């Protein structure tokens, strides 16, 4: 959450926020409160315009509400901006992408590709309560796009049902590529 309740952000700051909303794909809660900004800054934020006048994809946001302020500029009220991908129930949404685990032996479904250990580091715990996409694995080390497998699913691995926890760092420089190897995919 970015809290700007009493901070003057300036024209450049408003542009950076607009650019960030356009390009940043993480979950954001932006609170600006009664922060006075000028007309140009208000245009950057409420219309999603930047210095290059590239509009934001308005379907991805709940927009900022603006009121005229005493200073002739605008004051913004609390706004929540959420950038999350629409994912299946077995997937984790992160950074505007969807990720899943499956016993697919290194193969990902059409439109998806193997994801990295770095991404898995950020979202591993979010797999608690998720299930395999379609195929139960026959090996618990997670095959990613990286050379080595570093993560292992230790809960409900190689069995049906929801995972009670996500993968943990447990495989050391493994390179196991079984026919139903647990695979980490994303789009």
TrEMBL record:
| Top-rank lineage group of the source organism | Eukaryota
This protein is called what? Uncharacterized protein
Q: Which organism is it from?
A: Adineta steineri
């Amino acid at each position: 959450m970015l809290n700007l309740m009493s901070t003057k952000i300036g024209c450049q700051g408003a542009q950076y926020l607009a650019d960030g909303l356009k390009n940043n794909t993480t979950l954001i809660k932006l609170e600006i409160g009664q922060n006075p900004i000028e007309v140009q800054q208000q245009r950057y934020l409420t219309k999603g315009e930047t210095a290059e006048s590239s509009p934001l994809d308005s379907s991805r946001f709940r927009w900022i509400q603006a009121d005229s302020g005493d200073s002739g500029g605008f004051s913004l009220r609390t706004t929540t901006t959420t950038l999350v991908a629409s994912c299946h129930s077995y997937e984790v949404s992160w950074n505007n992408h969807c990720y899943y685990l499956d016993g697919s032996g290194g193969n990902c479904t059409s439109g998806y590709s193997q994801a990295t250990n770095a991404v898995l580091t950020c979202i591993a715990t979010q797999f608690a309560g998720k299930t395999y996409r379609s195929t139960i694995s026959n090996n618990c080390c997670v095959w990613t796009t990286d050379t080595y497998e570093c993560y292992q699913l230790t809960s409900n691995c190689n069995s049906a049902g929801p995972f009670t926890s996500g993968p943990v760092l447990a495989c050391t420089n493994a390179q196991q590529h079984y026919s139903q190897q647990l695979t980490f995919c994303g789009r």
